[in-house]
Write a structure and sequence with these properties.
Blueprint (H helix, E strand, L loop, with lengths): L1 E2 L1 H9 L7 E5 L3 H16 L8 E5 H6 L2 H8 L9 E7 L4 H9 L7 E6 L7 H8 L3 E5 L5 H14 L3 E2 L1 H11 L3 H14 L4 E2 L1 H7 L3 H15 L2 H13 L5
Parallel strand pairs: 1-6, 2-5, 2-6, 3-4, 4-5, 7-8
Helix pairs in contact: 5-6, 7-8, 8-10, 11-12
Amino acid sequence: MVLTGAKADAFVRKPGPDVAAALVFGPDRGLVRERMAAIGRAVVGDAADPFRAVELSAAALKTDPARLFDEAASLAFGGGRRLVIVREAGDGAAELFARFLADARLDGAFVLVEGGDLPKRSSLRAAFEAARKAAAIACYPDDERGCRALIGEILRERGLAADADALDLLVARLGPDRDLVRGELAKLVLYCEGPNVSADDVLAVVGDGAEASLEAVAFAACDGDYAVLDRAWVRAVGDGLAP
């Protein structure tokens, strides 16, 4: 089944007992990661607990497809539901997941699949959208209203509030990229001494989209994090920086 809007948000907070697997995909990689992490917490609490969760790559399942069925049927040590996370899944895994979803057990492990920016004709999307015991959750960039809500929510979580001018400036400078928004707001939180964020605070700390994107490229390169570097470079070029 396909979940969007409020239904997707509700599922992320509390996956229903009638769903055995979920595919999270889309062009907003920051939102994909957020929703993957939130579903993981909802299912097992700590997705890093080796007794409750296991992480696999789609490439590993290509060489050993039976492992998906074995991991999904395994019991969690100490009881409770188990979580199976599959990363970097694409259409090459569609047939495997179609077979798995056809007989997926609701009392087995919850299978959480991270997909890329899958098009509408994607066979992996089709497998999850058609399955009664599965959910397909697309993650698209926020519109301006969504950006405002996200920025306000992040600041409130940290005990801050932006005035109208500051909020307008943040929306204009940051745009819909959630990774960029969270990174720049983290700097802003450290800079602000009081609970109120002004436009001057934003101008002092938050660069425009192109500047922030270039900074993200530099940090990722220095850290040697090639996955983050690749995403940051694509974003920087999209923001108008010359290759």
